[in-house]
Amino acid sequence: NSMHRQVSVIAAAASIDVQAQIRDDFAQGEKLREKVESLGGFGAVASDPTKMTAAREFLKASDELLLSSVENVRDAVRAEAEKNRAAMEAMERRASERMDALRAQSEAQAKVLQDQVAQLTSMMAAVLGQRTGAAAETAGVTLDFGREDGGLGGGGPAAATPPEPESSAPEPESSHPEPHPETPDPAPSPRPRVATRDEADAVADAVYSGANVRDIMSKMDLYEDEAERRRVVSESALEYEEIGDLVDNDDLHLLTDACAKELGVTDSFIGIIDSKRQTYVSHSKFDVDTGEARAHGDGVYCANVGTVCKHVVKRGDAMQTNGPNHASLTGMPNFTDPEYEAIVNHADHAQGAILGDTFAQFAEYVDENSDKPDDARIETEYDRRGEAHPHGAEKVPTVGGMRSLADTFLGYDHIHYTGVPIKLQGQTVATFCAIDRERERHDVDVEKVKLYAARAQAMLEKRAAEKKLARLGVPAVLPEAAAPTVAAVA
Length: 490
Description:
The protein is α+β, with helices and mostly antiparallel strands. 51% of the residues lie in helices and 12% in strands.
């Protein structure tokens, strides 16, 4: 009984405590409700931090703790949302920048592709036209694709015989002796007859063949990834207008002089290759009899399509070959002089104009009867436009330089060529070459030429970095802290 009574007393006490707690919770809840209503309702309190603070005075400790926890969660969610928003904005900016870069790259590629298509079509048409004319001449006919028959020479009606001149009264005899009769002029060669339509079609079919087209393309300077190569050329300040500091450069002269002497070749040069031309910034000629090497031809250029080095750019690796002349080097085909003339006269492309300049300069200055001294400056495209030469007056190509370039490639029965690419950012922007214009060679060590090319590459890389820093406004490195020059390395 005593135990039962104690349990009953505990139960009664617990019931009284629970009732009291319920009463207190109810009273606290009523006060909170009245306060919230006085502040404008739950919506107004939730949206106003000041009203929320006033209402919190009526919360009990557990509710206050719960509310703080909720607010902490809300703040964390907001912080995470802000972080995600910032990340998304950064991602969108990067995506936009990537898209802008891709768009610029795509536009550059499209521009280069358009230029290559224009070059291909205009030069292809010029060379095919020349070859068509040559094939017709070999066949002894002329072509007129607008005619269905051979005309007068192809079985048409005979030409009318011109009327005999009217007779006139005989002239009185002269007392002077008659002069010895002059040797009559040789009869003019008969004009080739006009080809029949079938003959003309046969000539065209033979010339406009897949093999002929492939042969012409093999002789053109059409490079893979040309847009990227041109970007590197531009970024490295190697466009023609920007390479004045490389023309007649002492460090480069040391390299080409040393290469010519060590390998015993007649010529060694470094050629910078931009989008249209190859400029011989350092060209050393070596006299194998006297052992003398001198710098010649600096600053002279030729259109890329007219160079041998275009094949090194295509391959992206060293090449060696021999042949009777520059147009007949084994494995490195080039156009014939008549085909180059057709490109100059008929191809509507910037390289055709540059090639025409070179041919005109050859014709004007290389002839042995030319009275121009070696140190005279050649007329350039800038002179014709009335503009200052971008390399400066003291570095305008000279007549002697043009003669030196012609002497390297023209008028020999045998020639040897070794060419090594000079690359920046993996793209060929120049070549280092060793040439023997007097004999075929099979003993030129290409690995030694590669070493000279590597030294020139180191110089161009250092120069490109300095040019980039200058564009960014970064001060130049102090001389005592600068990297060793190519001359020091050599």
